[in-house]
């Protein structure tokens, strides 16, 4: 038995939202590179060590900026895959949730990149980011259930 999936014209919104996550990680990469240069942390070191942080505030800023980027990359596959699956049946919801994730990650990165880890939740950005990816995960699971129901 085959399943036919017809993508609505609204599918452009999830595609745009997914593209925004790629631009987000590109922007974070640029921020990490600048922070690395200011801190004087050479490659291949992923983070500054404790002694470097104690001696140089810019090393701490680098660590925080790097962590914001790394944390986003940890969620990136879940967000993209869930957006793709959820958008098969719910393109506007998927796009909105992916957009929420991306926008909150911008604020998260700005706050975290100050060098003060407590500012990573600036304006509740960490909470909104979590809400976005968890809701995407739930919506994608529901979409799978809907697709299975259609095949039975």
Question: Can you offer a commentary on this structure?
Answer:
The model has no long low-confidence stretch (mean pLDDT 95). The chain has helices at residues 12-39, 50-55, 57-87, 91-112, 125-151. It has one domain (10-151): Up-down Bundle (Four Helix Bundle (Hemerythrin (Met), subunit A)). It is built from five helices and no strands. Helices cover 75% and strands 0% of the residues. It is elongated, with a radius of gyration of 19 Å. The protein is an all-alpha fold. Pfam families: MAPEG. InterPro entries: MAPEG, MAPEG-like_dom_sf, Membr-assoc_MAPEG.
What's the level 1 CATH class? Mainly Alpha
Write the CATH homologous superfamily.
Answer: Membrane associated eicosanoid/glutathione metabolism-like domain
| Helix content, binned percent | over 70%
Largest sheet report: none
Mean pLDDT: 95
Radius of gyration: 19 Å
Number of strands: 0
Bin the strand percentage.
under 5%
Structure annotation, total helices: 5
Q: Span from first to last CA? A: 10 Å
The low-confidence runs, each spanning 5 or more residues with pLDDT under 50, are none
What is the CATH third-level topology name?
Answer: Four Helix Bundle (Hemerythrin (Met), subunit A)
Q: Give me the secondary-structure category.
A: mainly alpha
CATH architecture group name:
Up-down Bundle
Number of domains: 1
* Bulk shape: elongated
Name the helix and strand elements from N-terminus to C-terminus, one letter apiece. HHHHH
């Amino acid at each position: 038995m085959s399943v036919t999936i017809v993508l609505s014209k609204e599918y452009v919104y999830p595609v745009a939202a997914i593209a925004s996550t790629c631009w987000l990680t590109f922007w974070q990469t640029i921020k990490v590179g600048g922070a690395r240069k200011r801190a004087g942390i050479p490659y291949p070191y992923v983070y500054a060590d404790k002694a470097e942080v104690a001696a140089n505030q810019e090393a701490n800023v680098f660590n925080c900026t790097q962590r914001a980027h790394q944390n986003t990359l940890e969620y990136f596959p879940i967000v993209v895959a869930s957006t793709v699956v959820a958008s098969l049946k719910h393109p506007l919801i998927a796009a909105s949730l992916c957009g929420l994730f991306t926008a909150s990650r911008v604020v998260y990165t700005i706050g975290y990149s100050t060098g003060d880890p407590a500012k990573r939740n600036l304006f509740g950005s960490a909470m909104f980011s979590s809400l976005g990816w968890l809701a995407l995960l739930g919506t994608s699971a529901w979409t799978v259930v809907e697709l299975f129901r259609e095949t039975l």
